[in-house]
Specification:
By secondary structure, the chain is α+β, with helices and mostly antiparallel strands. Helix content is 28%, strand content 30%. The chain contains three helices and ten strands; from the N terminus they run ββββααββββββα. The protein has helices spanning 46-58, 62-73, 138-158, and strands at residues 4-8, 17-22, 31-35, 38-42, 81-84, 89-93, 104-106, 110-114, 121-126, 131-135. It is globular and about 40 Å long. The termini are far apart.
Length: 162
């Protein structure tokens, strides 16, 4: 599978966005973004991309979406964030808010999870066959999938994600 690499100063999450990872802080790029056929390097940090996408698609901030999910689920740690209903766009963080770096994975495109020998780094295979390492344990992955499934079920029942 051939991957094209493109460079962007800004990025808005779309139907093809599979993952957003932090990139090397010493470079001019803050994020590595995986789409089905393209990899992007973007100047903005993942949280900035999520915030911009929330504002553009739902007229609220990333923090606003997080607070709404916190209220709904009665939890504050590692909660999935809905971006847009049209594409079932729900992103799960790999680490807690206390950490300065969290990568974000689209729930929709996760195919398989492979725990690695090292407890803190595992591999996620996406629906396009691409496998990417993430800082996430099997226990946290299982919880994230449970929370995301609950949230999607809630929105389907309510038929409203915005």
């Amino acid at each position: 599978m051939s991957q094209n690499i493109d460079y962007k100063s800004e990025y808005i999450i779309n139907d093809n966005t599979m993952a957003i990872k932090h990139y090397d802080k010493s470079s001019m790029f803050g994020s590595w973004i995986l789409e089905d056929q393209t990899v992007y390097l973007c100047r903005k940090q993942p949280e900035e991309i999520l915030n911009d996408s929330c504002l553009k698609k739902g007229l609220t901030t990333l923090d606003g979406r997080k607070k709404a999910v916190e209220n709904l689920m009665g939890r504050k740690v590692r909660l999935p964030v809905p971006i847009e209903n049209e594409y079932n766009s729900l992103f799960i963080p790999t680490t807690t808010r206390k950490r300065t770096r969290s990568d974000w994975i689209s729930y929709r495109y996760i195919h398989r999870f492979y725990p690695n020998g090292n407890d803190f780094f595992s591999m996620i295979e996406f629906t396009n066959g691409k496998t990417v390492p993430f800082e996430m344990t099997k226990v946290n992955y299982d919880k994230q999938m449970l929370y995301a499934g609950f949230l999607l079920g809630y929105f389907y029942k309510k038929d409203d994600i915005s």
